């Protein structure tokens, strides 16, 4: 399979959507082959069902087997899906929940696949045994999502590449044109004009170095744009990938460290030191790709200035005006006779005299105000120059800040922040670029860990054990519990049972054809369901719900559930056609529940007897038929059939049936419907009770 369009059902249009979603054809193929059902479901026009069937189809091509090769009936598939639904509850990520669908039961001929899964699952079970109740690990896992690889950054508006060299211009335009402005300038004058429009200018040729630039233009010089790495010129791009996936990455790293501390290997390619390095580098950025507060002292100081400057200036001014007011109150002017004459002769202005008198106080108030600003904003040398012109030199009352100078100051601080952040992001981007591939691998492994961990946690919760695989056709278990009853009711009576050539064979007959008889509501259907659960899980390579279980793998599994309602003639015919498939000689396990309801009892017994005869001729098959007609069926069959029974001994004080859930071997159990009638009678009164009493008499 070389391309997407080699996959049936993926045409040109769909292939394009896959490529767009996953970033490339290879990535899309990897997702399909790797069973990333969650990811595939997100492709435009693809739902979860389509994704599951697509993955199944592609895997079937590779493995040469489909789920239906083993699960021969719709009811078997239903049991498989219900089991999967239970396992999915132990997933912590959507990825794992969806990917669990790649686990299917295999026929015996694919034993290598079953063994492969068994080996891996045994590892997952051990991991879950150690870590299954670690709440920290579980909450970390639930924070991990598939990485988003498409992390476009918006065009950078405040940075530009300027050059006088047309070659450099073309190269820069081609590489960076979509990310920032690239401009060709003719000389120093134009360079300055253009540069004033940006807070950060990269001058990309040595001619620019010779320009006589004013103080406010401070470009960064580069000889050749081609020799610069992307992380240097646009660090935002590399940082964006890590920022967008920050939560997943940080959770994965923490999880890796946690697993390693518990002796569980995780992504061997990255050593402990690199993991720590990646973790500390990631701690410098936030989810938007910005430099996190606290990661650079210089940036923090500038940001603090920018945040506080307005408030600080207004506080300082109000303090200064209070001081100025009290100075004015205390000021008096005594004119000497000489000064009076000078004023009268027009040699000096009275205004000058007043100014002279007040200048000292004003000056010291302004000086104090500036000192307070320097102190409170922690200003450094280079920033003092702009502060000088914050207040008017001429006495003005009340004292006010010169807004245009305050604005210029703020602008300078903002530019400095941007420049410093770019510098800082370059260091971060350089450090992170080294980890780009391994980060992707780590998260993928973390998500895949959750797939296995879900199976392990499922096994841990229900105390499942790996079954023993035996060579003969049969199944035997001890203390087995029906998972559907357990999840529904919380408790379940464990059951022991054996059918076929197992080490627990009760009478040495190795009977592989069994009729299960018994009391109404005794648990026959539940027993059949339990056997089905064990068969399916064992053929998936999964552990089974029994303290001990041995099973002979088989090629096909036929499960025929109890029919609902009365069947008409057409349905009777259909059921027979369905059953005809068991007639061939291939190894198989057949479970059927109360097949007798397909027609009237006499005819049913004959038909079931006939089917059992066909099955008993196949030494590679095993079958259990639940029936209330066991005696009648035995009369209608020539082959050796073992009849087992689930019997009730009475009703307890709460009127529940007292049932021995484990079947008795070679024992025809009575249906004991009278117990049910008795229960109904004791639970009712009046006419209703009279009715049930009459029915009860019929059994005496
Ligand atoms: N091992 C068990 N532990 C606890 N509850 C059980 C067990 N087996 C069956 N039950 C409960 O007994 C009830 C009847 O079970 P089930 O339907 O399997 O009986 P049945 O013998 O097939 O009945 P019927 O002959 O009427 O079809 C169900 O509610 C089921 O949950």
Defining key terms:
28 helices, 4 domains, Rossmann fold, binds adenosine-5'-triphosphate, four-stranded parallel β-sheet, DNA polymerase, domain 1, 700 residues
Q: Can you tell me the CATH superfamily of the largest domain?
A: P-loop containing nucleotide triphosphate hydrolases
CATH architecture verdict of the largest domain: 3-Layer(aba) Sandwich
Briefly note the structural class of the backbone.
alpha/beta
CATH topology of the largest domain: Rossmann fold
Give the percentage of residues in beta strands. Answer: 5-15%
Question: How many domains in all?
Answer: 4
Helix content: 40-55%
Rounded to an integer, what's the Rg over CA atoms?
A: 42 Å
Poorly predicted spans: none
GO biological process, one term: mismatch repair
Function: Has ATPase and non-specific DNA-binding activities.
Domain DNA mismatch repair proteins mutS family: 511-700
Binding site for ATP: 518-525
């Amino acid at each position: 399979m070389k391309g997407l369009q080699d996959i049936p059902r993926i045409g040109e249009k769909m292939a394009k959507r896959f490529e767009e979603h996953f970033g490339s054809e290879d990535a899309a193929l990897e997702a399909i082959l790797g069973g990333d059902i969650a990811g595939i479901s997100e492709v435009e026009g693809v739902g979860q069902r389509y994704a599951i069937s697509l993955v199944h189809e592609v895997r079937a091509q590779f493995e040469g087997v489909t789920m239906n090769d083993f699960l021969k009936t719709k009811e078997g598939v239903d049991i498989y899906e219900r089991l999967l639904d239970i396992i999915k509850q132990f997933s912590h990520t959507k990825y794992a929940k969806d990917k669990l669908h790649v686990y299917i039961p295999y026929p015996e001929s694919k034993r290598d696949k079953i063994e492969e899964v068994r080996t891996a699952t045994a590892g997952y079970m051990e991991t879950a045994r150690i870590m299954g109740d670690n709440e920290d690990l579980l909450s970390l896992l639930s924070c991990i999502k598939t990485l988003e690889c498409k992390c476009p950054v918006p065009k950078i508006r405040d940075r530009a590449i300027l050059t006088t060299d047309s070659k450099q211009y073309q190269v820069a335009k081609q590489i960076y044109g979509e990310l920032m402005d690239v401009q060709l300038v003719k000389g120093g004058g134009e360079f300055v004009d253009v540069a004033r429009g940006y807070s950060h200018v990269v001058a990309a040729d040595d001619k620019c170095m010779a320009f006589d630039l004013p103080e406010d233009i401070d470009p960064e010089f580069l000889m050749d744009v081609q020799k610069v790495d992307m992380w240097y010129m646009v660090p935002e791009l590399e940082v964006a990938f890590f920022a967008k996936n920050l939560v997943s990455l940080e959770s994965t790293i923490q999880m890796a460290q946690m697993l390693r501390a518990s002796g569980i290997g995780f992504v061997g390619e990255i050593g402990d030191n690199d993991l720590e390095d990646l973790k500390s580098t990631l701690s410098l950025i936030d989810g938007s790709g910005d430099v996190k507060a606290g990661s650079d002292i210089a940036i923090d100081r500038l940001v603090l200035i920018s945040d506080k400057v307005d408030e600080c200036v207004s506080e300082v001014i109000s303090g200064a005006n209070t001081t100025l007011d009290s100075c004015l109150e205390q000021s008096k002017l005594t004119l000497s006779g000489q000064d009076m004459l000078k004023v009268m002769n027009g040699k000096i202005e009275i205004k000058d005299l007043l100014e002279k008198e007040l200048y000292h106080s004003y000056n010291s108030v302004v000086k104090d105000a500036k000192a307070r600003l320097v102190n409170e904003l922690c200003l450094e040398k280079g920033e003092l120059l702009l502060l000088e012109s914050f207040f008017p030199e001429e006495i003005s009352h009340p004292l006010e800040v010169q807004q245009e100078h305050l604005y210029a100051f703020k602008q300078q601080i903002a530019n400095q922040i941007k420049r410093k952040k770019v510098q800082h992001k370059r260091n971060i981007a350089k450090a992170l670029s080294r980890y780009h591939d391994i980060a992707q691998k780590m998260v993928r492994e973390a998500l895949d860990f959750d797939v296995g961990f879900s199976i392990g946690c499922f096994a841990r919760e229900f105390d499942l054990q790996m079954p023993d695989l035996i060579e003969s056709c049969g199944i035997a278990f001890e203390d087995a519990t029906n998972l559907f009853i357990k999840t529904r009711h919380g408790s379940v009576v464990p059951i022991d049972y054996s059918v076929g050539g197992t080490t627990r064979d009760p009478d040495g007959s190795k009977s592989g054809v069994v009729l299960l008889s018994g009391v109404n509501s005794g648990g026959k259907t539940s027993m059949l369901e339990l056997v089905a659960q064990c068969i399916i899980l064992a053929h998936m390579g999964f552990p089974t719900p029994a303290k001990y279980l041995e099973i002979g793998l088989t090629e096909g599994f036929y499960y025929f559930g109890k029919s609902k309602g009365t069947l008409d003639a057409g349905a009777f015919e259909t059921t027979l056609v369905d059953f005809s498939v068991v007639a061939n000689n291939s190894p198989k396990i057949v479970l059927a529940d109360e097949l007798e309801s397909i027609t009237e009892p006499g005819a049913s017994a004959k038909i079931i007897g006939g089917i059992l005869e066909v099955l008993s001729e196949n030494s590679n098959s095993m079958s259990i038929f639940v029936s209330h007609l066991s005696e009648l069926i035995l009369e209608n069959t020539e082959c050796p059939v073992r009849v087992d029974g689930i019997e009730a001994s009475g009703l307890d004080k709460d009127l529940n049936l007292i049932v021995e859930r484990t079947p008795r071997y070679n024992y025809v159990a009575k249906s004991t419907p009278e117990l049910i009638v008795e229960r109904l009678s004791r639970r009712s009164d009046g006419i209703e009770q009279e009715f049930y009493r009459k029915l009860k008499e019929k059994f005496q």
